[in-house]
Amino acid sequence: MHKKSSKHGETRRKKRTRTGSSRLNIENIVSSMFSDISIALGISRLGLTENELKKIVRNVIEHLLSNISYRPSKSVILNRVLRGRLRFAPIVSETILDLRKELSEDLLEYVVNFGGPVCAANIRRLYLESLRRKREDLLGLLREAWDTYGKPLPIRCPRCGFSSIKPDLTCIVCGYSVKEKEFKEIIGFNDLFHIFLELTDELGLRRTLENQIVVYDPNEGLKPPPPRYGKIQYVVPLEEEELVKIEEKLGLRKPRLKEVEEERKTVKEEKRKVKEKPTLDMFLRVNTE
């Protein structure tokens, strides 16, 4: 029993020694190679301090060595960094964002161009940084990163242009709140509502009338309430005119379209007569004098 315990303790000591030497090896690589690796990564001229460069290089080396079962030479490490500089760019970008509260223009440009998924995870911050630096030219790249690596939503924000309007009608990226009328214009509500009236059954129309809302599904158009759990859908309150149309469709109210049209024509004719009357009176006075 004592021998087994001794062997077990020896194995644990060897593991600790191996781990310690591996960690020491990383520190040695960082200290001796951070300048060469910084150049290989393309970050040596971004205005980063020596300590910042060492932290970035350490993160890259740790990631590199985690996939290698042997201790590579310095030349092998440098070649692997050179070949994988784009693959390591998200690690570099994430470390830069951790190190700096505000980004210089060069750092911002690097992160936006090469950050990929890191851009999507920090989309609001990078959007504001781009505006602060007056780099509107970077917004297209950010939108691309958001659509590719982020969680794009079906509705684009009319202010920032990102696919980022939540079901509560606020923008994830810029914080803009879309007005109900504005939202209706974005989705082409009038055409969708006409289709909704034609296709929805009586039960669905009655539910809609009772709740005075309709549900917009980007894939299916307008649907009766309630919204379906787990799907991205938008609740749209209905106006009086729209509720009247539902009542007419259900036969709860007689259509008044002809009456309304006749009334409009009558009012229009009366207004025309009122405008023309003073002119006629003036004409008669001029001719009788």
Q: Tell me the distance between the termini.
A: 137 Å
Main sheet makeup: 3 strands, antiparallel
Helix content: 55-70%
Run of helices and strands: HHHHHHHHHHHEEEHH
Strand residue percentage? under 5%
Query: What's the β-strand tally?
Result: 3
* Low-pLDDT regions: 13-24, 277-289
Secondary-structure class? mainly alpha
Give an overview in words.
The chain has 13 helices and 3 strands, in the order αααααααααααβββαα. With 289 residues, the chain is mostly helical. Among the domains are: 1-99, no CATH class; 187-250, no CATH class; 265-289, no CATH class. A 3-stranded antiparallel β-sheet has the order 2-1-3.
Please describe the structure with a list of short key phrases separated by commas or semicolons.
single chain; 289 residues; mainly alpha; three-stranded antiparallel β-sheet; 13 helices; 3 strands; 66% helix; 4% strand; elongated; disordered C terminus
Which SSEs are present, and which pair or pack?
Blueprint: H1 2-41, H2 50-66, H3 74-83, H4 85-99, H5 105-114, H6 117-121, H7 123-132, H8 139-149, H9 180-187, H10 189-199, H11 202-211, E1 213-217, E2 221-223, E3 234-237, H12 240-250, H13 257-288
Short account of what is shown:
The protein has 289 residues and is mostly helical. Helices cover 66% and strands 4% of the residues. The radius of gyration is 34 Å and the shape is elongated.
